[in-house]
């Protein structure tokens, strides 16, 4: 008796489609301040940038030179910075203001550009209104600064 040989072609192996993605990794976030809030979300990206990504924590430090003209405290310690993303020397910020009707948006924007000009080549600011800003977002350093200015906080 002759064995019958199986001549059916083998099933092709299943392969997943190849999708090219830009990977992002979140860095550990700073612990909440004593007042309980975070100072913005920091995200590194490792795209095809020709230069190393700028350290978002350096950006936050530089932005402490930007003082909110109405309250006299820097925008980082006021909790106005919700997110910092870098890609090479490009900076993207998610920020809010103490009020959506703030007349000094341009002054704050100009201050950010000047404060970060040694770190990045361009800045993109996404103004966000949710969640709304509130005094609970102010860091302990910001609270100390406000108290020194005579605010009862």
From TrEMBL:
Lineage: superkingdom: Bacteria
InterPro entries: Fe-S_Maturation_MIP18 (IPR052339), FSCA_dom_sf (IPR034904), MIP18-like (IPR002744)
Chain segments annotated as transmembrane: none
Domain MIP18 family-like, residue spans: 59-121
Bias type Low complexity, positions: 13-27
Span list, region Disordered: 1-37
PANTHER family linked to this entry: FE-S PROTEIN MATURATION AUXILIARY FACTOR YITW
Name used for this protein in its record: MIP18 family-like domain-containing protein
Organism: Actinotignum schaalii FB123-CNA-2
